[in-house]
Amino acid sequence: VKPAIARCVAHFFRQGVEEEGGKVTIVKQGRIAYPKVAPRTAAFRVVAHLTVEQPGQAPAKVPVTIHLIALGHGRGEAALMTMGIGNGVPAADLRALVKLMAVRLAAAKL
Fold first, then answer.
1. Which residues, at least 6 apart from 17, have a Cβ–Cβ distance to it below 8 Å?
2. CA angle, corner 72, sides to 71 and 73, nearest 5?
3. Least packed by Cβ within 10 Å: which of 15, 47, 83, 88?
């Protein structure tokens, strides 16, 4: 998994929001440190501000965080992408989901 994947996720997120008439500002994007739960583990984060406008009201900026965790074991690969308001999915919940995914990927014996 190449670091450019964070830029790609940011691009498609922005494109999707703008197609619906919204506005997105990408604050940061890139690789993040993450515990190695599988032989190949890579983690990325995209932080953005989504501008929400309603008629008759001032625009509001909503922080959005996207996490992408990619795992590889043998010939198998899997990824988990989450998106949430503010800091996104809590770190403990993200770790629990990724650990479960790693166990199941290893059990598949691909």
1. 23, 24, 50
2. 130
3. 15
Nearest Cα neighbor of 67 from 102, 104, 93, 105 is 93
pTM of the model: 0.91
Residue 7 and residue 29: Cα distance in Å, rounded?
A: 6
Q: What is the pLDDT of residues 95-106, one digit of tens each?
A: 999 999 999 999
| Statement: residue 66 has pLDDT above 80 | yes
Tokens 């032989």 identify what position? 39
Taking the C-alpha atoms of residue 60 and residue 77, their distance in angstroms, rounded to an integer, is 39
Q: Would you state the structure tokens that stand for residue 15, as one six-digit string? A: 């494109």
60, 87 contact by CB (below 8 A)? no
| Whether the Cβ atoms of residue 59 and residue 53 lie closer than 8 Å to each other | yes
List helix spans (H) across the chain: 4-19, 91-107
Judge whether residue 55 has pLDDT over 90.
no
